[in-house]
Each structure stands twice: as structure tokens, then as C-alpha cells.
Amino acid sequence: MAVAVVGALTVTTTGGSVPRRLAPSTRSSFVTTLSSSKLGFCPVRVRNYENEPARKKLLVIRAARTESKGVSIGFRAPNFQLPEPLTGKTWTLEDFESYPALLVMFICNHCPFVKHLKKDIAKLSNFYMKKGLAVVAISSNSVATHPQDGPQLMAEEAKLYNYPFPYLYDETQDVAKDFGAVCTPEFFLFKRDGRRPFELVYHGQFDDSRPSNTVPVTGRDLSLAIDSVLSGQPVPSIQKPSVGCSIKWHPRKSS
């Protein structure tokens, strides 16, 4: 049964170790496939550092953490017109209107939180694109402060990781502002009922894994939401925010 989103219901986010409230009958086909190693995932080994030199214990990734926030369920996907550095093609929201659902991801090249998930983002996207999901990634970081996130290196990144989705460059940062994006990675999952515009149904994390913890990457949270949308089931209303690097805004020009 298809579920239409009515009005703008604000998502309740939780932090820390508070569990998500998930429908017990919903199981992610991506996670199921992942657990059988058909996508090339391997079990994560947790190393015991107790007997290793103290200097190795200090090798912890440190990065400023920013949480996704401020966008309400029911929010309509903004129009955009952005270039894809790899192919030179310009993409718009209209290019995805024939799909029942659209995943928009704000990512970049340099952020440790994105690097931690890059291969798995590509695998999850490839898995669900075969099931009818449209996917697009956008980089909005300022090249004035982070030249490693520029279009030429974006094209190399897309080729290196074999991204199955277009990786677009938001030079003006207007698209990031229109979406209300604040961090990388940040995930916006939209669904479309009939001729209605794309409406937001999920704005949360990939999963609980972080560069600084030993939680294995599974894509569980995002994949459960995608499975719900593609099967016509309600998406869980409690969604943990995505955590990542802040979007690097252009420096203010001095007057």
C-alpha cells in the first residue's frame, strides 16, 4: 500500500545509544545480501590494542562533527541544474521524474566521514538502482578552501570508486542551501506518488559506523528506509541524523 506524505511532519532525531523504533517485520534486502557476502563485504575484525605500543593508540581520526538537521518530512525536492565533471553532462531534477524514489547525497572527496563510507555508498547505490531507485551525489564544498574537492578531482574520484550515479558539482553552493544541507555525508530520500512532486521521507544516517569506532559498515538505516519506500511501506519516523564534516562554505568577501 503506497503511503502519501501529508503536510510537513518534523522528524524526531535521537542521539547517543537510543535505539531506533523500527517495524519488526521490515528487513533490508541490502543488509540481507550484505550478510551473505554477495556484494563483497567482509566481516570486520576488531583489533585488541592493549598489548600494542602506546603510540599506536593515539592514531585516532579527529574531525569536526556536524549533524544533519532542520529539514522536515514532506519537504519537496528543490529544482537544480548542475554539471557532472566526469562526463560534462548537466543534470536537473526533471531527469529523475520517471523514478518512484530519489536519493540525493551530499558528499565530497576529502572528508574522513565520507571516505569511511565511499565504497559502501557505491555498493548500496548500485544495489538499489537495479531495483528502480534514482541516485545522485552532489559536492558543494568551496574549492577556495578545499581545492581537493574541485571538479577535476571529483571526476577522478567518480572513476576511481566506479560511482554508478552522477556526481555533480554545486559551484555556487545554492543547491546545498536550497536542500538545507549542512554536512557530508548527508542523505535525502524522496518518494513520488503518481504525478506529485518528490517529497522527503528520510533524512538520516547511513548507519551507526563512524571512522572512530569499530561498528561495521552495513548501510542498515538508509537501506531500511529505501526498502520501505520501494515496497510501499511507511518509513520509520524516528531517524538518527547523519554525522559528518561541515559543508565548506565560500569565505566571506571583505568589504
Provide an overview of this structure.
With 255 residues, the chain is α+β, with helices and mostly antiparallel strands. It contains 7 helices and 10 strands. It has helices at 29-35, 54-57, 112-115, 118-129, 151-160, 174-179, 220-230; strands at 66-67, 81-83, 90-92, 101-106, 133-139, 167-169, 183-184, 186-191, 199-202, 243-246. Mean pLDDT is 82; it is low at 1-26 and 35-63.
Which helices and strands, and how do they pair?
Layout: H1 29-35, H2 54-57, E1 66-67, E2 81-83, E3 90-92, E4 101-106, H3 112-115, H4 118-129, E5 133-139, H5 151-160, E6 167-169, H6 174-179, E7 183-184, E8 186-191, E9 199-202, H7 220-230, E10 243-246
Parallel strand pairs: 4-5, 5-6
Antiparallel strand pairs: 1-10, 2-3, 4-8, 7-10, 8-9
Secondary-structure element order, as H and E? HHEEEEHHEHEHEEEHE
Low-confidence spans: 1-26, 35-63
Report the average pLDDT across residues. 82
Structural class: alpha+beta
Keywords:
single chain; 255 residues; alpha+beta; 3-stranded antiparallel β-sheet; globular; disordered N terminus
